[in-house]
Specification:
Layout: H1 14-39, H2 51-64, E1 85-88, E2 96-97, E3 106-107, E4 109-111, E5 117-119, E6 133-136, H3 138-143, E7 158-160, H4 163-170, E8 178-179, E9 186-188, H5 191-198, E10 214-216, E11 222-224, H6 227-235, H7 241-268, H8 273-282, H9 285-288, H10 295-305
Antiparallel strand pairs: 1-6, 2-3, 4-5, 7-9, 8-9, 10-11
Organism: Candidatus Entotheonella gemina
Protein name: HNH nuclease domain-containing protein
């Protein structure tokens, strides 16, 4: 997993801007329909969701932002056998977590608009929020995660906001809190505000720098550097043996590319040791900018296992 810089407000191509304007307006209408249903006290079922909308975003993100890779494990998603899932970071239909010292997950509770403690209904108002949708492989989305969303603090459903706080939040693009009912001061929060209240324990590629939480070592293994790293390894199943083997192959490829360039520079280009290192790194550009599958594992191997000076 690695950090990904993405914000649709920063797109420079007109075709991309047009695509987003259209997608955001459809997402907004679909979100409004779900909230209307909820306000009418009707339960939201799987049939109420328009999966075509999040599938379209998944395809766009895979092509334009994630270099065809899973947002969590960096495996390459290809063709009919591994088309990738549109993963909801915050689950849309139910929220579960595993309490400390227990083995089985339970449903998360939250406060409703009347201040009553209820089973969290799922973050249905984020079903089409771009910050909540990521392209992932089937394994990361379904093997363990499903509706799990561990947090440090309590899960939030409807929350009361003061006018000051509401003003602050509304200044963020695409992050406006949604009034639960007209005239009420209970709101459904957008992703960034929820992050502040809930302190999620799962890493998110837009928000976090995964290199501060995860470290990849010999044989493609992954270890945690933080509690969020530990939860993410467990819930995204990043310690899967098959995945480790794939990462190991990528690590060997990264090291081979670096080393072959270094040795060529040393033997043929009359370079100093420092210049040979720098030359070696120029062959790892695709790893540094994330185009290679398992780029985080490949770079960690070169730097922390093989001890090549990091440039
Ligand atoms: Zn994955």
């Amino acid at each position: 997993m690695r950090h990904v810089d993405f914000d649709p407000d920063q797109l420079s191509e007109k075709a991309d801007q047009d695509w987003w304007r259209q997608w955001l307006s459809e997402a907004e209408a679909a979100t409004a329909a779900l909230i209307l249903k909820w306000r009418a006290s009707e339960p939201i079922s799987a049939d109420d969701f328009q999966s075509a909308l999040w599938k379209a975003l998944k395809v766009w993100l895979m092509e334009h932002v994630f270099h065809g890779k899973c947002a969590y494990c960096e495996i390459h998603l290809t063709g009919a056998r591994q088309p990738g899932d549109a993963e909801h970071y915050r689950p849309k239909g139910e929220v579960r977590f595993v309490p400390d010292g227990r083995r089985r997950s339970i449903r998360a509770s939250a406060y409703d608009e009347k201040g009553n403690s209820v089973d969290h209904p799922g973050y249905f108002w984020l079903a089409y929020h771009w910050r909540n949708l990521l392209p992932t492989c089937t394994m990361c989305n379904r093997a363990v995660k499903r509706n799990l969303f561990p947090t440090e603090d309590r899960h939030v459903f409807v929350i009361e906001l003061t006018d000051d706080r509401l003003g602050e939040l509304s200044e963020e693009p695409n992050e406006t809190p949604i009034p639960f009912e007209a005239g009420s001061n209970g709101y459904l929060l957008p992703p960034m505000a929820l992050d502040q209240h809930e302190a999620p324990q799962l890493l998110h590629p837009y928000r976090d720098d995964p290199s501060k939480h995860l470290r990849f070592g010999e044989g493609g293994v992954v270890v945690e550097l933080s509690p969020q790293g530990e939860s993410s390894i467990r819930v995204y199943k990043l310690d899967d043996n098959d995945l480790a083997r794939e990462r190991q192959k990528a690590q060997q490829r990264a090291w081979w590319q670096y080393q072959a360039a270094f040795q060529h520079a040393e033997a043929n280009l009359n370079m100093t040791q420092d210049e040979c290192h720098a030359f070696g790194w120029t062959f790892l550009t695709d790893w540094k900018d994330g185009r290679e599958p398992f780029s985080a594992a490949g770079l960690d191997y070169v730097v922390y296992v093989k001890k090549a000076p990091e440039l």
